[in-house]
């Protein structure tokens, strides 16, 4: 039944994303900013943030355990579905990618940059970025957003149920939205731990969902890859799995200068399709584990 709940939540969430509805990040920001206060000099303290995440996750896990013990597990599935819909989702990217690709095809890189600048990390928002650098930053941001808001949630939901999924997504939200900036770096360390196994599992999935030969040449760079960031693992493995230099704009411009206006749309489309195929692989693996009685 957990698989059915997830599939329904996934379909609902994809429809909401396409319409740019119900932004989970906005909910996390309101949740943290409305309650989180710390004393002067304790801005790096992470205990308050962890309490805001671990307490709801513990309650969710406890409710599931009690319901299962009482034989009324089915009664919690509607609530579990609602929580999953809130945890999943990366709204806004579809319309943003259309606008970005349109500006790119017209050669208006300044307009393309204005479309995506709010989605880029603060260190990569410089207006002086070259088109190639800008596109790589957009690609990294897009893959990381989908990974954290879909694949991480799916992994921990399959592994530990709704409580684990809530905990994992909450830790990632702390790293982005906790009001005290000084504490975010410590939360980012926790976020890397939460995503360490899922991102490497996804990098392996890229080999199944994409070009296996190209992937096999690159994958050794990310295993074990202890010093690699999540962004690096995603970019390296995706680059090997994609054909047509979809993540190598400099090489593409050299080999196909006449097709350069179409590169932005083609590249982002290839990344999106790779992620969609990878999610299909995860869903199939989820189903097989359920059938086998493992989950």
SSE order and pairing:
Blueprint: H1 2-18, H2 24-33, H3 47-69, H4 77-87, H5 93-105, H6 109-116, H7 131-177, H8 181-209, H9 212-218, H10 230-241, H11 249-255, H12 263-291
Helix pairs in contact: 1-4, 2-7, 3-7, 4-7, 5-6, 5-12, 7-8, 7-10, 7-12, 8-9, 8-10, 8-12, 9-10
Structure description:
- This protein is an all-alpha fold.
- It has one domain.
- It has helices spanning 2-18, 24-33, 47-69, 77-87, 93-105, 109-116, 131-177, 181-209, 212-218, 230-241, 249-255, 263-291.
- Helix 4 packs across helix 7 (131-177) and helix 7 (131-177) packs across helix 10 (230-241).
- This is Histidine kinase.
- The chain crosses the membrane at residues 49-68, 74-93, 150-173, 193-213.
- GO terms for molecular function: kinase activity.
- InterPro entries: Beta-lactamase_Reg.
> Could you give the order of the helices and strands?
HHHHHHHHHHHH
How many domain modules? 1
> What's the pLDDT, averaged over the residues?
89
Main β-sheet, in a few words? none
Helical stretch tally = 12
User: Which residues form runs of ≥5 with pLDDT under 50?
Assistant: none
Using only CA atoms, what is the Rg? 20 Å
Strand content: under 5%
């Amino acid at each position: 039944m957990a698989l059915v709940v997830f599939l329904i939540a996934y379909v609902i969430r994809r429809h909401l994303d396409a319409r740019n509805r119900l932004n989970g990040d906005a909910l996390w920001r309101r949740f943290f900013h409305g309650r989180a206060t710390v004393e002067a000099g304790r801005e790096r303290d992470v205990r308050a943030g962890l309490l805001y995440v671990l307490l709801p996750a513990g309650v969710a896990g406890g409710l599931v355990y009690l319901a299962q013990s009482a034989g009324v597990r089915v009664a919690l599935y509607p609530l579990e579905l609602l929580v999953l819909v809130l945890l999943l989702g990366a709204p806004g990217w579809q319309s943003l990618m259309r606008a970005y690709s349109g500006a790119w095809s017209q050669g208006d890189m300044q307009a393309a940059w204005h479309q995506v600048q709010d989605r880029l990390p603060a260190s990569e928002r410089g207006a002086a970025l070259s088109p190639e650098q800008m596109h790589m930053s957009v690609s990294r941001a897009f893959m990381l957003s989908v990974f954290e808001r879909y694949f991480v949630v799916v992994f921990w939901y399959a592994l530990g149920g709704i409580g684990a999924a809530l905990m994992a997504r909450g830790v990632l939200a702390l790293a982005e939205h906790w009001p005290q900036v000084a504490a975010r770096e410590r939360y980012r360390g926790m976020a890397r731990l939460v995503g360490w196994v899922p991102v490497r599992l996804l990098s392996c999935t890229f080999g199944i969902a994409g070009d296996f030969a190209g992937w096999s040449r690159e994958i050794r760079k990310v295993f074990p890859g202890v010093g690699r960031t999540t962004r690096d693992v995603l970019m390296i493995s995706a680059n090997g799995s994609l054909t047509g230099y979809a993540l190598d704009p400099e090489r593409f411009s050299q080999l196909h200068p006449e097709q350069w206006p179409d590169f932005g749309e083609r590249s982002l489309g290839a990344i999106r399709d790779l992620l969609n195929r990878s999610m299909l692989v995860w869903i199939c693996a989820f189903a097989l584990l359920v059938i086998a009685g493992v989950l």
